[in-house]
Amino acid sequence: MKTIDTINFEGKKALIRVDFNVPLDADFNVTDTNRIEAAKPTIIKVLEDGGSAILMSHLGRPKGQKNSDLSLKHICDKVSDIIGVEVKFVEDCIGEEVENATSNLQSGEVLLLENLRFHDEEEKGDETFAKQLSKLGDVYINDAFGTAHRAHASTTIVAKFFPENKCFGYLLAKEIEAIEKVMQTGEKPVLAILGGAKVSSKITIIENILDKVDHLIIGGGMTYTFVKAKGGEVGDSICEDDKMELALDILKQAKEKGVQVHIPVDVLAADDFNNNANTQVLDVDKIPSGWQGLDAGPKTLKNFKDVILASKTILWNGPIGVFEMENFANGTISLGNFIDQATKNGAFSLVGGGDSVAAVKQFGFEDKVSYVSTGGGAMLESLEGKTLPGIAAILE
Ligand code: AMP
């Protein structure tokens, strides 16, 4: 891997693609600084070597138009606080003024460019725009996992103008390592836990993952398509009838590949999709009409606990119940506790993709698992087995 540690930045200007797409409140205060903190080690490495850092990012969806609400100037002070260096700001990301600002940049200084997406060439992956960006630095560092699945100018195309001088930042390298640990080098038994709402959105992941894991837990709304396909009664539970054949095919493939699949045996069912609905625990394949499964039941959680505690490598994607409603969050919280326990016993645990990260943060498991991915879509595409363009561009 071309990591940042292989380069000495003394006297060099590092053009760093970071992901500072952070949430702002109505007064433009940053309400979650995780992404800025995540980029800090890379920036500090450049500065400590005696280099300077030019930070580029997008913020929100300005769709190629200037929009002062989405200006990165709002976050400049917060970035300064976190990095511990006063960050300068320039009101564009290409052009003469920007080139002047970067050429005057001294060792130890940091410059933040204006929102890349104020130019529609960014998302189009425009080569001329990428070339203009490339003029700003001597070395290109990609440290933005959240956009690594996009072939945008600043995430992918720009790399070709640095054939010898490009590398991954620490954050992106950590993401790549975490995915490799699960998909290639993880200690066995390897377990994937896939929850979430629909089989259709997870099918490519399931198919890719069957070659990599020893155990597969299927939970959440996906459960009912499998249960109905096997002849069970799922009442009003979420179910994709047109995916039932696919579900049977997945089970067949898993058997052929020696993957043990674990599906809920009981559920907490409700008589309405509502936190205050009446509830009862039912066998997963005997849910009468008028009832729907919204969380995993106690026997299921006991089974899942045994599998999780016996695993050495764990991937978790997707909640196993409707965790947004307090009365149906127990399954997802319990799962987090089991993974916490397994991690304490020495397992490597990775949480990533879509809503699982939200669930993990909401219930405070962030520091209890080995790694929480910073990229929803990028992680999903990695789990699907796709090579992300932002990563390929550094490796080329
Ligand atoms: P995904 O984005 O595919 O990971 O799906 C996450 C969503 O799945 C969350 O909003 C959960 O509320 C939902 N979910 C999990 N279990 C169920 C269930 N049994 N019925 C309906 N939705 C569910």
Walkthrough of the structure:
This protein folds into 2 domains: 4-171, 3-Layer(aba) Sandwich (Rossmann fold), CATH 3.40.50.1260; 186-383, Rossmann fold. Helix 1 links the parallel strand 1 and strand 2. It is of the alpha/beta class. The protein has helices at 34-49, 76-83, 96-103, 121-124, 127-134, 170-185, 199-209, 223-229, 244-256, 298-309, 330-344, 355-362, 376-383, 389-395, and strands at 13-17, 52-56, 87-90, 110-113, 139-142, 166-168, 190-194, 215-218, 233-234, 260-262, 266-270, 279-283, 286-287, 292-296, 313-317, 348-351, 371-372. The strands form 4 sheets. Strands 3-4-2-1-5-6 form a 6-stranded parallel sheet, sandwiched between helices. A 6-stranded parallel sheet has the order 10-8-7-15-16-17, sandwiched between helices. Helices cover 36% and strands 17% of the residues. The protein binds adenosine monophosphate.
Mean pLDDT: 95
How many domains comprise the coordinates? Answer: 2
Helix content: 25-40%
Ligand set: adenosine monophosphate
CATH topology of the largest domain, which one?
Answer: Rossmann fold
**At the fourth CATH level, what is the homologous superfamily of the largest domain?**
Phosphoglycerate kinase, N-terminal domain
